[in-house]
Amino acid sequence: QVALQFPDELLADAVEVAAQMEATTGAEMYVLGDTTYGSCCVDEVAAEHVGAEAVLHYGPACLSPCRKLPVLHIFGQQPLDVGRCTEAFRELYPERQSRVVVLSDVVYAHAMGELEQQLCPEYPNIIFSRLVCGDPPGPAVPGEERKFGRQFWVEAAGGLQDYAMFYVGAEGLALTSFMLTWNRCPFSSFNPITGCSRHETLNVNRALMRRLYLVERARDARVVGILVGTLGVAGYLTLLQHLRELLCRAGKRSYTLAVGKPNPAKLANFLEVDVFVLVACAQNSLLDSSDFYRPVVTPYELELACNPAREWTGNYLTDFRDLLPGSACAHVELPLAVPALEALPDVSLITGKMRATHLCDPLTSQLPPSTALACRDQTRALAEISPAASFMESRSWRGLEQQLGQTPVSKAVQGRRGIAIAYEDEGCEQP
Q1: What's the rounded Cα separation, in Å, for the pair 382 and 368?
Q2: What's the CA gap between 275 and 247, in Å, rounded?
Q3: In which region does residue 54 sit, left (phi positive, over 0), alpha (psi from -120 to 50) or beta (all else)?
Q4: Which is nearest to 324 in space by CA: 258, 236, 230, 226?
Q5: Same domain, 89 and 163
Q6: Which of 149, 152, 151 is nearest to 134 (CA)?
Q7: Mean pLDDT in residue range 160-185
Q8: How far is CA 121 from CA 35, 97, 190, 424, in A?
Q9: What is the C-alpha radius of gyration for the chain, rounded to an integer number of angstroms?
Q10: Which of 147, 181, 202 is the last residue before a domain boundary?
Q11: Most buried pick, 238, 278, 358, 407, via CB within 10 A?
Q12: ∠ at Cα 366 (217, 382), nearest 5°?
């Protein structure tokens, strides 16, 4: 049993592909149409519902490692004019000794070998990245970069900051994530759809200022909603537990919410939440929350806000696995608890008010374990210490209740027909 996962734009070909796959392999094929979260991630949960033993993922992918099932990626092959791309590279980098790392969207990976043959004889310091599905075996060696499913080796003594980045692909979340992560490297791009090349004019510093403003909003927040944006990326459960502990130590209330793909209408239902943190893959974590009622931050930004031991170094992290215990590159342990009387005062840069900065002891903390759902008899006890629970206590509707055996069984009846402005059983007034 094999699950075939298609994005929306490729669903028209799903039936024919599944039929040919069944005729060729003899395996039973299931088509996964609409995914719960981003289509770039492998939907392991939907695959497990049909008992799939493997997943074939079609279309663009973020290449985040999965937890359980083996995955085969079929990126597709979008056309690329290698000659025009070579000319664009020469125009952008006329100096033949330029140090450049070439990155590409996954749908153009099939043409990178030909592009490498064209450019390597002229540019001795050029580096082409390789796509890696899953975690490579063994630890990274000195000079090796492993991020976003890309792998390459840097030979310069100054490291990656001595290189420029050349991206082959259209503007999108992947390019934005690359530019924020490698924000010390100048970027340029070639769009195969339009045939145009340019030095990227996106002001990365301006984008980082916006993200650092969200860090201040997270510091001021008292109630944080943890949005589950993936159920398939390896390590997401460990990160959820890490975020709950981090917020508990920082004296903040947290609620875990699984609402599928976040949008302003969904998140506006949780007025008691001051800020949301989205646990998702590297591409979907950078959610533009300007239209949302409350800001949405990344796990790294929440770490900057709540972990006093983590300092801003200029390196932005979009892959949440870098924050987990055991990560050699970015994990920072929480410091020891600081009593409230000994904590240094801190003033909010947004409201100008004093805020608490001490860390609570997890063993003596008075905060009970937080959960997204609370039983009715527990809500009143939580309301005494949580403003969010107080708000939920005043709600007239608190969720669905099963009431097993209490609801009488009734037969299905035919409903009303027509449109809301004029049902068929309604009389029409004669003029």
Answers
A1: 8
A2: 12
A3: beta
A4: 236
A5: yes
A6: 149
A7: 88
A8: 44, 11, 20, 76
A9: 26
A10: 202
A11: 278
A12: 75
Same-domain check for residues 242 and 227: yes
In this structure, are 32 and 119 located in the same domain?
A: no
Same domain as 209, residue 319: yes
Extended strands (E) in 100-257? 100-104, 126-128, 130-131, 144-147, 150-153, 164-168, 187-191, 196-199, 223-228, 253-257
Alpha carbon distance 347, 331 (integer Å): 27
pLDDT tens figures, 317-366 = 888 888 887 665 666 777 666 665 555 667 777 777 777 666 666 555 54
Bin 277: left if φ > 0, else alpha if -120 < ψ < 50, else beta. Answer: beta
Reading the block at residue 205, the tokens are 């510093």
- Measured N-to-C along each axis, helices 82-92 and 112-119 cross at an angle, to the nearest 10 degrees, of 50
Separation between Cα atoms, residue 258 and residue 174, nearest integer Å: 24
- HSE, CB side, 13 Å, CA atoms: give it for residue 116: 15
| 8 Å CB contact between 349 and 216 | yes
Give yes or no: residues 91 and 149 share one domain. yes
What percent of the chain has pLDDT above 70?
81
Total domain count, the chain: 3
Question: Nearest-CA neighbor of 127 among 158, 109, 161, 151?
Answer: 151
Are 247 and 296 members of one domain? yes
The domain that holds 17 is classified in CATH as: 3.40.50.11840
Q: Could you list the residue range(s) of the whole structural domain that residue 227 is in?
A: 205-323
pLDDT by residue (tens digit) across 135-153? 766 666 777 888 888 888 8
Task: Please give the average per-residue pLDDT across 41-47, as a whole number.
Answer: 87
The reply to whether 355 falls in a domain is no
* 414 assigned to some structural domain: no
Residue 102 lies in a domain: yes
| Residue 334, strand partner residues | none
* 271 vs 275: CA distance, rounded Å: 10
> How many angstroms separate the CA atoms of 64 and 229, rounded?
13
379 in a structural domain: no
Residue labelled with tokens 């993936």? 230
Query: Which of 282, 302, 323 lies at the terminal end of a domain, its last residue?
Result: 323
Look at the block and give the residue holding tokens 């970015």.
330
185 and 124 in one domain? yes
- Residue 317 sits in a domain whose CATH number is 3.40.50.11860
Structure pTM? 0.75
